[in-house]
Design goal:
Blueprint lengths: L1 H6 L2 H15 L30 H13 L5 E2 L4 H27 L8 H9 L1 H9 L11 H11 L2 E2 L2 E2 L10 H29 L1 H8 L34 E6 L2 E6 H41 L7 E5 L18 H20 L11 E8 L5 H19 L3 H17 L12 E8 L2 H10 L6 H13 L1 H5 L13 E4 L15 H35 L7 E2 L9 H6 L5 E2 H4 L4 H5 L3 H11 L1 H5 L2 H7 L1 H38 L5 H28 L9 H4 L9 H18 L2 H20 L6 H7 L7 H18 L5 H24 L9 H25 L13 H17 L3 H6 L2 H5 L5 H25 L1 H12 L19 H11 L17 H7 L6 H15 L6 H8 L4 H15 L5 H11 L7
Parallel strand pairs: 1-5, 10-11
Antiparallel strand pairs: 2-3, 4-5, 6-8, 6-9, 7-8
Helix pairs in contact: 4-8, 6-38, 8-10, 8-31, 8-32, 10-32, 11-14, 12-13, 12-39, 17-24, 17-25, 23-24, 24-25, 25-27, 25-30, 25-32, 27-30, 27-31, 28-31, 30-31, 30-32, 32-36, 40-41, 40-43, 42-43
């Protein structure tokens, strides 16, 4: 053997010696590799005086010394390990300072520009005209100047000027897209800092994992950064895997430290990182979100500062459709009178009231019941615009197709609607003159938000009890106890869903949730099939067996499959000549045992014996990439479907719509990205329902092969995820720029040109969903894959800047989002902590991959008793068998603190759930009692520090139109309805024929402005207007007749209301 070893190349001597040592016993491994000429074999031997190590461990240490070409492995001196710890600490501190200090220095405290307000006050008329011009996009002929002006007005600009990417603080984004948009960027920035700190804390684990060699070397370097690679391998025939060491080589030799010593330190570092995450997230959810909401409410001036929402109104009553000389219906007039009366009453009661202006309802918008057909009106309006473009462009085929579609929609709208004034009222939005009046109105109706109190008031009011005991009946409208609450932002409303009833929305939500479940199952099956196909067409790195049950894939699964069982101990004993003449399975086993790096260092192996194995590895990586691409494609298609499904639910606000989309997209993406690959490779234990159907993998535990397959796949996906979303958003933005530069000249109609010069919306729901996916996948696996923390930090950084560029330069101005979406998202993230704890215990408690000493004390004695029982019945590897129990996993030095954190999370969730249940029942009753007993403490007091409190609505309206338009709740001012507003007005005209309406307005002009005698009557006779249509038009003539000197203005108002352009 000695002569054969001398003749063998140096690269294969280790393999020959390893096989010979295995056949002769553990003690023979103390014979070191034959050195180069001039060196003494004895110089490589270690003379160890410590008899407690045992012969097997001494032999293993000497073997590792020969593997690393060092004379001896010093296990008493840990100076090199301390240097590594110090380097990791300094490096982590440097990274944290490099990231944190620039943010601290560049922190800008949000303030209002007084000069801007003064300028706005001086040029009020001019700016108001600019706001009104927003609807003027020109005629059918393409006009590039108006298109560019439209781009500036509809994008995130201030006074028509583009904002700077670097000098615009995050705090200012609330003026553009509400506090929801600001909090999204705040969450990105702070989570980025959090994950940078977490990566810094756990970088010690990455360092020691990277210099180790326990995991199979399948050519993926990312596997080396996982805890499945910690420690050195090669001495499997001498010691059990849980006795392995980490070896660090330095100029003076080598130093070693047991993995069990470092595992406790790594466990504590992971525990510290997750505590940091909890602190960051709790601070954001319970401190930052409320603080930003309060600050934005104080400093930002938006329509909601002056507005209230009124519902539980009487749907209709006799005479409600009557209009006065100003065209205001009786319903609006009487509701305004009630609100003004209540505000005057509250002003008299408020001794600190400083407002000197008149109490006034500046705007009252009634939401009418269109029978759920507003959505179809919008469809028809947009298709009519498309048809107009096609006809102008002489595209006959497209115009005919659109005409057919319009006819189908008109069938759905066949039911004739009453005039708008006669339609039932669902709710109303009222803008009052001052912010203080709004707060007092909310105080006056503070009991109305509780159904119990409202029903009690209604019952007592109907019986007449209130008339003799208290003036509560004065708050009623037409005998109904109405509800007044804070109004949402105008842009947050989805007008086409306002007439959908609660029961209809509830039914839709139930059906959509069922459809969503079906889509999730189908998506899971498709992604599962893609990953399974990729897995079956490549040889698994997990088939390399150490011969220890706790270190190898599930034995039952391997026995049932036809996979060749590759024993590492046998493969190391094979000679190269034997392997050359063996079959492909033996060659694959031999090459897999040597590893990708060792093969590349040996040209003979790379070009001959292991050539097919290398080709298979490359093919397998290609299949994994294809599977990942399929996952991405499925996610994109499902994301589009889920967006549509969320819209079918017909929520009332953009915030509710985006919350629904966020949850659905997040659930689907997280499942496909992070858990399908786990299910494909997981072997479920007995007793799990459908476990043998869903889980068909070979790993029932987090053994070293699991990290080579699942861990490497997750790391690869998340590494790509750091830049792909940001790059995709940037590419979409550049595509829009390209269309404007290259395709705009081809536009034949102004509307077509306007669409090219309209930026796409800023989809905040998809962005929050992607953020949730990154956080959940990272937290799930970061205990065993600590490099994920760095990838998550990189994602936050790239996405922050890419999305900021997209928002300020490449997106349509978003709605004024409230805190609902960031609040829900941050609350969902808290559940990832419990998931992290479960997987951390599963990974850190694995006795072979991540050996750790048991915890001392009472728990240690229990675990020791269980271990002794297992040892007596399991033979040589009984200690590992004992370590695989659940109790032992929970009582290790690396897991016990994480287990306590898991218990804390579970108990906190239980308390939270109980409080939520009680808060929704007894809590509401308690609030009612508190309001009744302590009314002064529950009042909404007008705040002097609120920026809106220093302005009247007429003053604030100018600023709102410039910063966050529109300054109105009117349906026709909503940005979503610009293309469809014409069809709304047509459907609410008193007559169906638009030409009759125009001629009637002309007759009104002739008789009451130009003083042509009997012009209206002559029009009725000459045009042969039916008596039914005459009755519908008569009230409008009566309104003009009673208008006094304002007849011309009243006729103009009617024409504008009917959306008819004619010279008056």
């Amino acid at each position: 053997f000695g002569s054969r070893l001398e003749q063998a190349p140096l690269s294969t001597r280790k393999t020959l010696l390893r096989g010979w040592a295995s056949s002769k016993g553990a003690g023979a491994a103390r014979v070191a590799l034959l050195p180069d000429k001039g060196q003494s074999q004895q110089a490589l031997m270690c003379d160890r005086e410590d008899a407690d190590l045992g012969e097997s461990l001494k032999a293993a240490l000497d073997y590792w010394a020969s593997e690393n070409d060092c004379g001896c492995i010093d296990i008493d001196d840990d100076s090199v390990f301390k240097k590594v710890w110090l380097f990791c600490f300094v490096f982590s501190l440097f990274i944290c300072l490099m990231v944190t200090l620039p943010l601290c220095w560049s922190k800008v405290v949000k303030s209002r520009d007084d000069e801007h307000d003064a300028e706005a006050a001086k040029s009020q008329d001019k700016r108001q005209a600019m706001a009104e011009e927003d609807e003027d996009i020109g005629g059918p002929e393409p006009n590039f100047e108006k298109a560019k002006e439209h781009l500036r007005k509809t994008s995130a600009t201030v006074n028509g000027k583009w904002l700077s990417i670097f000098s615009t603080p995050v705090e200012q984004l609330s003026e553009i897209g509400g506090v929801g948009t600001e909090l999204y960027f705040q969450l990105l920035k702070r989570m980025g800092l959090c994950f940078i700190y977490m990566a810094a804390i756990t970088c010690l684990s990455v360092s020691f994992n990277a210099v180790s060699s326990f995991a199979p070397d399948n050519g993926q370097y990312l596997t080396k950064t996982t805890i499945g690679n910690i420690g050195v391998s090669g001495a499997d025939s001498m010691i059990t895997p849980d006795q392995r060491y980490i070896i660090l080589k330095h100029s003076g030799g080598c130093q070693g430290m047991p993995v069990t010593t470092l595992s406790a330190i790594i466990g504590w570092l992971d525990f510290a990182s997750i505590l940091l995450f909890i602190g960051f997230l709790a601070w954001f959810r319970f401190v930052s979100v409320p603080a930003v909401a309060r600050q934005a409410d104080v400093e930002d001036i938006t329509p909601k500062d002056y507005a209230v929402e009124i519902d539980k109104l009487p749907r209709e009553y006799p005479g409600m459709e009557e209009t006065n000389a100003d065209g205001v219906t009786k319903y609006e007039e009487e509701l305004k009178e009630l609100l003004c009366a209540r505000m005057n009453h509250m002003r008299r009661k408020d001794k600190k009231c400083k407002e000197a202006c008149e109490v006034k309802v500046e705007e009252l918008v009634l939401v009418r019941d269109f029978g759920g057909r507003l959505h179809n009106f919008i469809r028809k309006g947009r298709m009519m615009k498309d048809k107009e473009i096609a006809e102008y462009s002489e595209d006959t085929k497209k115009a005919e197709k659109l005409a057919t579609k319009i006819a189908k929609v008109e069938k759905l709208l066949a039911k004739k609607l009453k005039p708008e004034e006669e339609l039932p009222v669902i709710r109303a939005f009222a803008i009052v003159s001052t912010n203080g009046d709004k707060d007092r109105l909310l105080t006056d109706y503070r009991f109305s938000v509780y159904a119990l109190m409202r029903n009690l008031q209604q019952c007592l009011g109907s019986s007449g009890v209130f008339e003799c005991c208290c003036p509560q009946r004065q708050r009623f409208f037409k005998g109904r106890a109405i509800r007044i609450k804070p109004a949402p932002e105008p842009t947050d409303l989805i007008w086409e869903n306002q007439d959908v009833s609660f029961r209809n929305r509830l039914l839709r939500r139930s059906i959509i949730n069922l459809v969503f479940l079906i889509i999730v199952i189908l998506s899971f099956c498709l992604v599962y099939a893609a990953n399974t196909a990729a897995k079956h067409n490549m040889k698994s790195s997990g088939s390399q067996l150490l011969g220890v049950t706790e270190c190898d894939p599930d034995a039952t699964v391997l026995a049932e499959s036809d996979v060749y069982e590759c024993l590492v101990a046998n493969a190391t004993a094979w000679t190269l000549d034997y392997v050359k003449s063996a079959n492909d399975d033996v060659k694959g086993c031999y090459c897999g045992t040597l590893g990708y790096t060792a093969i590349l260092d040996n040209p003979e192996l790379m070009n001959d014996v292991c050539k097919d194995w290398l080709m298979n590895i490359g093919f397998g990586i290609s299949l994994a990439v294809v599977a990942s691409a399929i996952v991405v494609g499925i996610n994109v298609v499902c994301k589009f479907i889920l967006r549509t499904l969320a819209e079918v639910e017909r929520p009332l606000s953009e915030s509710a719509l985006n919350s629904s989309k966020m949850v659905k997209i997040w659930a689907l993406q997280t499942l496909n990205t992070g858990f399908v690959i786990f299910c494909v490779n997981f072997a479920a234990p007995d007793g799990i329902p459908f476990g043998k159907v869903i889980f068909l993998g070979e790993f029932s535990d987090s053994v070293r092969g699991w990290y080579a397959i699942v861990g490497a796949a997750v790391l690869t996906n998340m590494m790509a995820n750091t830049v792909v979303p940001a790059a995709t958003n940037s590419a979409v933005m550049m595509l829009g720029v390209f269309k404007r530069l290259c395709l705009a000249r081809r536009a034949k109609h102004q509307t077509e040109l306007i669409r090219i010069y309209t930026n796409p919306p800023f989809d905040i729901a998809a962005r929050f969903a992607q953020l949730l996916t990154v956080v959940f996948v990272t937290l799930t696996y970061s205990a065993g894959l600590p490099l994920l923390n760095f990838f998550a930090a990189a994602y936050m950084m790239f996405t922050f800047w890419a999305d900021k560029v997209k928002l300020l330069w490449g997106s349509k101005r978003p709605p004024q989002y409230d805190t609902a979406i960031p609040r829900d998202a941050s609350q969902y993230m808290l559940y990832s902590v419990a998931l992290h704890c479960v997987f951390a215990i599963w990974m850190f408690g694995q006795p072979c991959t991540f050996p750790s000493n048991p915890l001392g004390g009472t728990l240690s004695s229990i675990a020791a008793e269980a271990a002794s029982t297992a040892t007596s019945s399991s033979g040589e590897y009984g200690s590992l068998a004992a370590d695989s129990g659940v109790l032992d996993r929970l009582t290790k030095e690396s897991t016990w603190m994480i287990f306590l954190l898991l218990l804390f999370c579970i108990s906190l969730w239980v308390v939270w759930t109980v409080m939520w249940i009680l808060g929704g029942t007894l809590g509401e009753l308690g609030k009612c009692i508190w309001l009744a007993l302590c009314p002064k403490r529950s009042k909404v007091v007008p705040g002097d520090v609120d920026a809106a409190s220093g302005m009247t609505w007429q003053e604030a309206k100018v600023r709102i139109d410039q910063v966050c338009p529109p300054a109105s709740y009117a349906m026709h001012r909503h940005p979503r309805l610009r293309e469809a507003q014409e069809i709304f007005q047509k459907k609410t005209m008193p007559v169906e024929d638009e030409e009759i309406a125009k001629q009637f307005l002309a007759a009104l002009r002739d008789e009451y402005v130009k003083e042509v005698d009997q012009a209206v009557g002559k029009f009725f006779e000459s045009a042969k207007i039916s008596s039914e249509d005459q009755e519908k038009l008569a009230p409008y003539e009566q309104t003009v007749r009673e208008a006094g000197d304002d007849k011309k203005e009243v006729i103009e108002g009617i024409a504008e209301k009917w959306n008819l352009s004619m010279p008056i």
